[in-house]
Write a structure and sequence with these properties.
This protein is an alpha/beta fold. It contains ten helices and twelve strands. It has two domains: about 100 residues, 2-Layer Sandwich (60s Ribosomal Protein L30, Chain: A), CATH 3.30.1330.30; about 160 residues, SPOUT methyltransferase, trefoil knot domain (Alpha/beta knot). It is elongated and about 65 Å long. Keywords: Methyltransferase, Transferase.
Amino acid sequence: MDAIKHISSIQNPEIRQLQHWSQKSRDRRKSGVFVLEGYRELGLALQGGYRIRTLYYCPEILGDERRQALSDRAGCSWVSLSPEVYSHLAYRGKTEGVIGLVEAREHRLQDLELEGKNPLILVAQAPEKPGNLGALLRTADAASLDAVIVADLKGDLYNPNVIRSSVGCLFTVPVAQASTEEALSYLKARDIAVYAASLGGSVRYDQADYLGASAIAVGTEATGLTEAWTRQAEACVEIPMAGAIDSMNVSVAAAVLLFEARRQRGFENITNP
């Protein structure tokens, strides 16, 4: 086995570059890579077919058994880090002592292939907070969706906060990015009905029929979906609320709608472990 390089200085150019990719969205997109923390997240990325270029680990934290398990699957080079360097580089408090440099995907809508005749899709238009987008991806995984389409994304999917709040579910659900116009055209061409979440919805959410091919669309917490979505929707659906606040977190609203669709479908594709 080749000798493993060791880095003990936070001023090392390789460490500075990793930090740069973690913090700068534009440079992540330009370079086609992103930084991913955590044993579980790296495992999910490998399971999803992502290619890891390099794994950086702290021997004092990552055990030999886990290191060997990742090494067998990743087939990439390793760099060891001192505890000080790892702590300086780590974005989270507890990530099991390993960080990967991973090749990003383009997530083009034209590459999104749907299986089955009646797919269930989540559309998230212009999610304004990385944490909300990550929570939506986590919800999509829990509901075993066929795909997530992110319309008019302002940032990028590989923002560390997206990955952290998704707990790795960015890698478990097919995800595509597009403009609103492209997304609507894609759905229309495949006869997928759009159900738009709206405070002024004309249909109560549990009275809509999600048995056919369906895309449930949610907008921002501040302004909701744009008119392009509500105008072309099969129905605008509303979740009745009785409290003083007339809205809820977007991932919570999406979960209510998606699991109603799953209930109507007899919870197909959802099994308890």
